[in-house]
Amino acid sequence: MTDVAAETETRIHDFIARTIADNPVTVFMKGVPDQPQCGFSAIVVQIMDHLGVDFVGVDVLQSDELRQGIKAYSDWPTIPQLYVNGEFVGGCDIIRQMFEAGELKTFLTEQGVLAAA
Question: Which of 19, 39, 72, 89 is deepest in the core (most CB within 10 A)?
């Protein structure tokens, strides 16, 4: 790896870590919450909106380094990726399964990012 590539990787890793640390709920996605650019990202946004979760969406399409960097950061091959209180929760399939089972609302409430009903 060249010095430039290593610096870019470090910069991307630091950006991801800082974003996750600064925001209780973060979705790394294709597009933005108002305009998802893939169906899987749209599903996660719909679930978060349905539950009334305040979250930050980060568009991984803004750079190839970010798109690859988030996959390396989580060691998870797909996007979108949901992080809650600094921890990786999962991608679209996991989020959808948790939502359908009623587990996601409970988890988010326990994490203090969703008001109890």
Answer: 89
